[in-house]
Write a structure and sequence with these properties.
Length: 586
């Protein structure tokens, strides 16, 4: 077969199923005919399978395998791009998928989808376009005018090659959604970090106040302790000074007082005084007795005046001596001794008083020194106190959080800018943006092409106008009509006009070309023989206008009486459950 897709020159040899049938497609007007169930539509399944890896009809892929032997499905397709020759080979049971370039097998990608994407790029057409404008089957394709507006628009975007804008828009929307999600996450993260920053700032401020209060209390305590130390030291110095003075005074008084008076002197004087007093007392007693007694107390002889007087005078003289001389002398000595003792005792008592006071001062000084040592220990202990609270780690954490917040702000600004740009891109790439511009331009081309084909199919009084939303306005003899109001034959011509217009536009506008067209049983739907001949004649003229570079294959049961020259006919017969192909030329 010979096919051309997007500057691709196809020269295909296709073997399908275990029969090993080969089909060589050519330009011109060609037909494919067969008895129902012989496998004529399977040709499209084979072509679609080798190019796109899926069946043309709405069946399971496994149903392409011949049910007779249940294996050996293999389709091979060769095509040329410039000077390079390519070949695709696919099969089922066993599974085969190979691509060759100039006879050398190409490396496969990681997935079937990626490989198929590369083939679609190579061909310049995907399965959807292929089934809508290259191989049209009444059983597998809804007429374009029967599609929903969204499906119409999607197909036209594909044909006009602006569906990439939709894909781009979808990618931008996905990206915007991702960015919105990321923006929400980062905004939430930033909110959490800001809360953490505020908590840390509050904590740091409280800790700083606590530390300041701690240091203030510490300073106050140190000041109080130092004042106590100074007070203790001052009192100690005062007591030390008093002790020095006391010691000096005690030394001075001790030197001044000399030795203690001899007690024996006093005792001796006291004894002498006692003796003298006793003598005086005895004299007084004797004198008293002389007055009452007639005997001399001395000699116990009778007293007479002379004898008594002598004794009395002697005793009175002795008494006088004792009282006037001896006793006063002794008393004077005793009093002098007593005064010496008293002075000594007074001085000794004063020294003792000084010593007692010195002892008190010493005890007081010792107590003060003990308190001083305690105060110094307290001072050292208080000086060494360090506030248990620290803001360093929190300041470091706060700086880290602020850095993170700044980075998040940058990310959020970047994401916001990206989202803003994507929002504008979505508007530009959306249906009301650049697509609308292209549709307005390209719909004119589509309308012109469709109406030209309507004239060629002898629907000269019928016109179709599509707007940029792909909503059609149909008129016949300037009277508005709907698609369903036309007869089946007219609808078939309208469908083919739109199909061929798509076919032309896809080659002209979309820079994609295809020189082969399949029409499967489209003419078998409520169209008379005259209409069929008219329709086929139009296709024939279309081939002539394309300088016979276009190959159209009509699959139908109503082509036996055609008077138009057919380039080739592929007849399909089923023999022993296998389809046998026979090509007749001319």
């Amino acid at each position: 077969m010979f096919v051309e897709f997007k500057k691709l020159s196809f020269c295909n040899i296709m073997s399908y199923g275990a029969s090993g049938a080969e089909i060589n497609f050519q330009t011109g007007l060609n037909t494919i005919k067969a008895v129902n169930g012989s496998g004529k539509s399977s040709i499209l399944d084979a072509l679609t399978f080798v190019l796109f890896g899926k069946p043309y009809r709405d069946i399971k892929l496994s149903e392409l395998v011949n049910t007779t032997n249940g294996k050996g499905l293999e389709v091979t397709c060769e095509f040329k791009i410039g000077t390079d020759m390519y070949m695709i080979r696919r099969g089922l049971k066993p599974a085969i998928f190979e691509i060759y370039k100039n006879g050398k097998e190409m490396d496969m990608l990681s997935t079937k989808k990626l490989n198929q994407d590369e083939i679609d790029k190579l061909l310049g057409i995907n399965l959807r376009l292929f089934k809508n404008i290259v191989a049209v089957a009444v059983t597998n394709n809804k007429p374009f005018l029967s599609l929903a507006i969204g499906d119409k628009r999607a197909l036209i975007e594909n044909i006009f090659n602006i569906d990439v804008l939709g894909l781009m828009c979808k990618d931008v929307k996905k990206r915007k959604t991702v960015n919105n999600t990321e923006l929400d996450l980062k905004t939430t993260e930033r909110r959490g970090i800001i809360n953490s920053i505020e908590d840390n700032e509050s904590y740091i401020e409280n800790m700083r106040q606590y530390i300041a209060s701690f240091n203030e209390v510490k300073d106050t305590n140190l000041k109080t302790i130092q004042e106590n130390i100074d007070k203790y030291q001052k009192e100690i110095d005062k007591r030390t000074k008093n002790l020095v003075i006391a010691e000096s005074k005690i030394k001075e008084l001790t030197e001044e007082i000399g030795t203690i008076p001899d007690r024996s002197v006093g005792e001796s004087l006291n004894l002498e005084i006692g003796k003298v007093q006793s003598i005086i007392d005895n004299i007084n007693s004797t004198l008293s007795k002389l007055k009452k007694s007639r005997l001399c107390p001395v000699c116990n002889s009778p007293l007479d005046e002379g004898h008594a007087r002598k004794h009395i005078e002697g005793m009175l003289a002795e008494k006088k001596t004792m009282e006037k001389e001896t006793l006063p002398g002794l008393m004077e000595q005793y009093h002098a001794y007593s005064d010496t003792v008293k002075v000594y005792q007074e001085k000794q008592s004063f020294i003792q008083t000084i010593r007692d006071k010195a002892r008190t001062e010493e005890i007081t000084r010792s107590t003060l020194e003990t308190e001083l040592n305690k105060a110094k220990q307290n001072l050292e202990k208080e000086s060494s106190k360090v506030c248990p609270a620290s803001v360093d780690s929190y300041v470091e954490k706060l700086n880290t959080l602020r850095t993170q917040c700044e980075e998040l702000n940058k990310d959020i600004d970047t994401l916001t800018e990206k989202i803003l740009i994507d929002t504008q891109l979505i508007k530009i790439l959306g249906d009301d943006g650049i697509k609308s511009y292209f549709f307005k331009k390209l719909v004119k081309v589509l309308n012109k092409s469709v109406n030209e084909y309507l004239n060629k199919f002898e629907l000269k009084n019928t016109t179709i106008e599509f707007d940029e939303t792909m909503t059609e306005t149909m008129m016949t003899n300037l009277v508005p009509r709907t698609y369903s109001s036309y007869s089946s034959g007219e609808r078939t011509r309208i469908d083919m006009s739109i199909l061929l217009a798509f076919f032309d536009i896809s080659r002209q506008i979309s820079n994609w070309s295809c020189n082969i067209l399949f029409i499967d049983e489209l003419l078998d739907q409520n169209i008379d023989q005259s209409g069929i001949e008219q329709f086929v004649s139009t296709l024939y003229n279309l081939i002539q206008l394309n300088k016979k570079k276009l190959g159209i294959y009509i699959i139908s049961h109503k082509l036996n009486e055609l008077k138009i020259q057919i380039s080739s006919t592929i007849e399909i017969r089923k023999v022993h459950d296998y389809s046998i192909l026979e090509v007749k030329y001319g």
